[in-house]
Amino acid sequence: MAEKSFKYIILGGGVSAGYAAKEFASQGVKPGELAVISKEAVAPYERPALSKGYLFPEGAARLPGFHCCVGSGGEKLLPESYKQKGIELILSTEIVKADLAAKSLVSAAGDVFKYETLIIATGSTVLRLTDFGVKGADSKNILYLREIDDADKVVEAIQAKKGGKAVVVGGGYIGLELSAALRINNFDVTMVFPEPWCMPRLFTADIAAFYETYYTNKGVKIIKGTVASGFTAHPNGEVNEVQLKDGRSLEADIVIVGVGAKPLTALFKGQVEEDKGGIKTDAFFKTSVPDVYAVGDVATFPLKMYGDMRRVEHVDHSRKSAEQAVKAIKAAEGGGAVEEYDYLPFFYSRSFDLSWQFYGDNVGDSVLFGDSNPSNPKPRFGAYWVQDGKVVGAFMEGGSGDENKALAKVAKARPAAESLEDLTKQGISFAAKI
Ligand code: FAD
Asked: Which ranges carry the Monodehydroascorbate reductase 3-like C-terminal domain (predicted)?
């Protein structure tokens, strides 16, 4: 059992950790001042790659190609870069106990890590069907996707069951991206989800109709309005059938489950204030405990433009919140301060030849614009959300860089809309004028 002390510890080795380390390095840290502790065996990487390029049948993305911070066009921090910058990268190390009052963390191996300032960047973990007691959910080849080890299991299963049958449980972005990846790998894919349309937390019925028809045209079967209620397995333990609550059953060589995630806050329960399922922070990602910050998926922070506390599970926020926390820490040390975090929510996803971006808030009435015909070889359409006469959210499939920038400006400026009909008619040119 060893004891080590650092001025700063970043707990977690995901997207936020990578961007926090980059910000520390660019502001300057002395050798031995900063440690990144991660239970993963690899240096921080851009997690979104796992459900996209990582699963391509040819030319698949592999590390070190997508270490942080390439996702935002920044410097790639290879494992050796941390050492060169004086940062200690402590991998394959799970912290199992945190004592925020004593400023210490204890690993599964019993090592103790002391800090002066802690940044919690533990992210989320997937919800598992076994947590809900679904019968047979522990069968082999029922897979989840969060970390690179999970992605390797998916790749292994794709290779072992070449051209087989896959059932994807869940209709969120993980379900949509995984269904596309499996289809591209020549699997016979069926998606199953309980809601009336895919991505219901963001998409309107109109937007979802485009993606569902596009997917169907690509050969993905979609079963809505029911859930997987049980699984049966071959004698070797591998899944072979999914039972649906509506009485149907589906053959399956692989099942991928994407039914949501929960923030990893358990280590800190009772020690720090929480809000909306996450660790409550201020606009500098400071928690209720002195010298403890929380960033990325675990943070519930003030979303200034909406006057509301939110938790955001998306990569853009994980990058920006990490940078904000480190800037605030460094500024405070010099007796200064940084501006409050003023975040514009931004999400994106890519699958098949599709690529969409969304900015702002999806509340109020919505209108569609452009060509949302799924048979068009280059679909380009969008949507606006209007609340109290103002455009508060903007979405576009197939937008150019400039068009996406214009949408971001709209969502930030929240301009008045004459009418929903006018917005439909003007389409992207409405955004271009802002
Ligand atoms: P994470 O990146 O999850 O990192 C958390 C880290 O903490 C992990 O390394 C974990 O092992 C480590 N950790 C946790 N607990 C401990 C412990 N006790 N001890 C040591 N280490 C610990 N967002 C988008 O906007 N667009 C996308 O297209 C998109 N695609 C995605 C695809 C996939 C497959 C996944 C899983 C997520 C995707 N996201 C996407 C969401 C985005 O990746 C997350 O919001 C982001 O990674 C959150 O960053 P984070 O640093 O908070 O958490």
From this structure: 344-431
Return the CATH fold of 353-432: Enolase-like; domain 1 (3.30.390)
- pLDDT tens string 64-114: 999 999 999 999 999 999 999 999 999 999 999 999 999 999 999 999 999
Which residue shows structure tokens 């399922």?
277
Measured CA to CA, the distance from residue 93 to residue 80 in angstroms comes to 18
Residue 250 to residues 132, 173, 186, 232, 298: CA-CA distances in angstroms?
20, 22, 18, 10, 36
Domain 129-259 = CATH 3.50.50.60? yes
Q: Which fold has domain 3-125+262-334?
A: FAD/NAD(P)-binding domain (3.50.50)
Domains 3-125+262-334 and 129-259 share a fold: yes
Q: pLDDT of 263-281, one tens digit each?
A: 999 999 999 999 999 999 9
By most ligand atoms within 8 Å of CB, the mutation choice from 10, 38, 47 for ligand 1 is 47
Nearest-CA residue for atom 41 of ligand 1 = 314
Ligand 1 centre and the CA of 409: distance in Å?
Answer: 27
- The full set of domain ranges for the chain reads 3-125+262-334, 129-259, 353-432
**C-alpha neighbours within 13 Å on the C-beta side of residue 294:** 30
User: Is residue 1 predicted with pLDDT exceeding 90?
Assistant: no
Closest CA to 19 of 233, 339, 319: 319
Residue nearest to atom 46 of ligand 1 (CA): 315
Write out residues with Cβ below 6 Å of ligand 1. 12-17, 37-40, 47-48, 50-51, 94-95, 121-124, 145-147, 174, 264, 267, 296-297, 313-316, 318, 347-349
- How big is the chain, counted in residues? 434
Measure 428 CA to ligand 1 centroid, in angstroms: 32
d(CA 353, ligand 1 centre) in Å: 24
- Which protein residue has the closest C-alpha to ligand 1 atom 33? 48
